[in-house]
Write a structure and sequence with these properties.
237 residues; purine biosynthesis; SAICAR_synt/ADE2_N; Phosphorylase Kinase, domain 1; alpha+beta; phosphoribosylaminoimidazolesuccinocarboxamide synthase activity; 5-stranded antiparallel sheet; ligase; 6 helices; D-amino Acid Aminotransferase, Chain A, domain 1; 15 strands; 34% strand
Length: 237
């Protein structure tokens, strides 16, 4: 597989074209950012850890019947993925109250949410990724009702699979975001699933094992990511 031109550079990943028009290469960089890029830092080993973590999760989801864009690992920090036509929306599930939900509604952190919540956000950094609904998505052409319904179905399936997986490592899946795109007429999970895009707490202590460690200046960010992986059986060395 020949790596060619850089197509896009995000906050923590870069995307490259290849000699196959239907495949891209994702490069997981060591960069970390929060608060819409206002806080930035490079953390040693983070790209490698997230690349291997994402591969592990994507393979678990594929085994459970969730279609993903992931093909295979190429190197310590690179993965080969299918080229999707991405929807400009984010799907968010919350199992426990935390983060923006608490700020928005004035509820305390740590409340078990039963049933879990499902929310849609427009992927737009300049506007702060505002919350939207299915009607707005259809009106402005961001996603069809059928795409939103399928995205919701898959997002909740991911919740079912990963809540159990993380619980097996004595961890709570607090919340997470997913992005989807179209590939050959099928809605497929894209982007990544790493501790950068979800919240994970130790079940007993409720210690944070995710990117909140960076947001809140708690330190030990990559070490926490590796601890999550170790509990799931992921080998990073």
């Amino acid at each position: 597989m020949e790596k060619r031109d850089q197509l896009y550079a995000g906050k923590a990943k870069s995307v490259y074209t290849t000699d196959d028009a239907n495949r891209l290469i994702l490069l997981f960089r060591d960069d970390t950012s929060a608060f819409d890029g206002k806080k930035k830092e490079a953390l040693d080993r983070k790209g490698m850890v997230n690349n291997k973590f994402n591969a592990f999760i994507m393979e678990k989801l594929e085994q459970a019947g969730v279609p993903t864009h992931f093909d295979r690992l190429l190197s310590e920090q690179e993965s080969l993925v299918k080229k999707l036509e991405m929807l400009p929306i984010e799907c968010v599930v919350r199992n426990i109250s935390a983060g923006s939900l608490c700020r928005r509604l004035g509820v305390e952190e740590g409340l078990d949410l039963n049933p879990c919540t499902f929310e849609l956000f427009l992927k737009n950094d300049e506007k702060g990724d505002p919350m939207i609904n299915e009607s707005l998505a259809q009106t402005f052409g961001w996603a069809t009702p059928e795409q939103v319904a399928r995205a919701r179905e898959l997002t909740l399936k991911v919740n079912e699979v990963l809540k159990e997986l993380f619980l097996s490592g004595n961890m709570l899946l607090v919340d997470y975001k997913l992005e989807f795109g179209m590939y050959q007429g099928e809605l497929v999970l894209g982007d990544e699933f790493t501790p950068d895009g979800c919240r994970l707490w130790d079940k007993d202590t409720r210690d944070k094992l995710d990117k909140d460690r960076f947001r809140q200046g708690l330190g030990g960010v990559v070490e926490a990511y590796e601890e999550v992986g170790r509990r799931l059986g992921i080998k990073f060395d």
